[in-house]
Amino acid sequence: MFRKISLGSLGLTVGSILTVIGFIAYATGNATLNLAGLFYGVPILLGGLALKAAELKPTPYSVPTSPEIISLREQQATSTQNQLRQDVTRFRYGQEAHLDESLEKIGLSPTDEERPELIGLRETATDGAYTLILEFASPFISLEQWQNKQEKIEKFFGPNIKAKITQSEEQFIDLALIKQN
């Protein structure tokens, strides 16, 4: 639940409230509340602004996950699949894009401008195996370049992961991470 809360928005809200209370207390001559409001409110407000500026929003699910797939995930998902799903579906701070470092290590991010962008994810079953599908907008990296990195992707996200790379539409790549026994 807390993964879905923006710390930047929380800091802005709390900091704004405390700062306003501090100014009102100053105007009414309440020195104690004035100090508490201003000395806590302004730094929290500035911290909220800084977090908001460095915020990376969670990646949305393109298709809601059914209860059957959730049950399959609980039984079969690897720790890497779970960590990956949890990381991209929460607010992140100080990163350019989701999976930017991973794509760089795999060799699919020659520059920041050419880096594929994670735009969605979905969970499904492939021949009875839990599958996490990452959906990328990839206008600068072709399907062939992705397929040339398939073995490296499997090693990076493995063990017990098989990668299947497909092109859903022109300039859009689906990377399916399938649980293997």
UniProtKB/TrEMBL annotation:
Cited InterPro entries = DUF2854
Q: What keywords tag this UniProt record?
A: Membrane, Transmembrane, Transmembrane helix
Offer one Pfam family short name for this entry: DUF2854
Q: Does the keyword Transmembrane helix apply?
A: yes
The residues forming a coiled coil are: none
Enumerate the transmembrane spans.
Answer: 7-27, 33-51
| Record protein name field | DUF2854 domain-containing protein
Query: To which species is this protein native?
Result: Stanieria cyanosphaera (strain ATCC 29371 / PCC 7437)
